[in-house]
Amino acid sequence: MKRLIIYISLALFPTMPVLALAEENLVVVANTGGQELTLTREQVRNLFMGASLGYDFRPLALPPRNRTRSLFNTQVIGLTEARIQSYWSQMKFTGRMNPPREFNNKDELLSFIESHEGTVTYLPADVVIPSGLTIVYSTD
To answer: ∠ CA 72-129-125 to the nearest 5 degrees?
Structure first.
């Protein structure tokens, strides 16, 4: 019975797997003030976990339970949301660091990052990136 449902779904929605794959890829974009820059996965991970890279970047994030954030956490950071929240709770409690500033949705995030040099965030790869921003990392 499960096979029949899968075959019918593939027949009725042949582009669905392609769209799902497109949503799986992410880009990390930054307002670098026009400077070209490429970061590695490890550098991006460290940046979003509070480490200094020698660049004056301020990471920005989407809210918990956001699909893009979940994908970023698993694909780039390599931790679950619960583990990341626990880490930031410890950092805040000890007074060492604060987590990335959160925005409600990608439109607010894009609007903010466009007007604030030195900010960096992650977005779905299919989002149209404004010309003033630089893609510094991609998961594809």
So the answer is: 35
Q: Domain 25-138 has what CATH class? A: alpha beta
Element (H, E) at 7: helix 2-12
50-70: pLDDT as tens digits: 987 777 899 999 999 999 999
Q: Where do the structural domains in the chain lie, given as residue ranges?
A: 25-138
Residue labelled with tokens 């660091």? 97
Instruction: Tell me the pLDDT tens digit for each residue of 96-125.
Output: 889 999 999 999 999 999 999 999 999 999
Say how far apart CA 33 and CA 113 lie, in whole Å: 11
Kindly report the pTM of this predicted structure.
Answer: 0.80
List residues bridging with 30 in a β-sheet: 120, 134
Buried b / exposed e along 21-57 (16+ C-beta atoms within 10 A): eeeeebbbbbbbeeeeeebeeebbbebbbeeeeeeeb
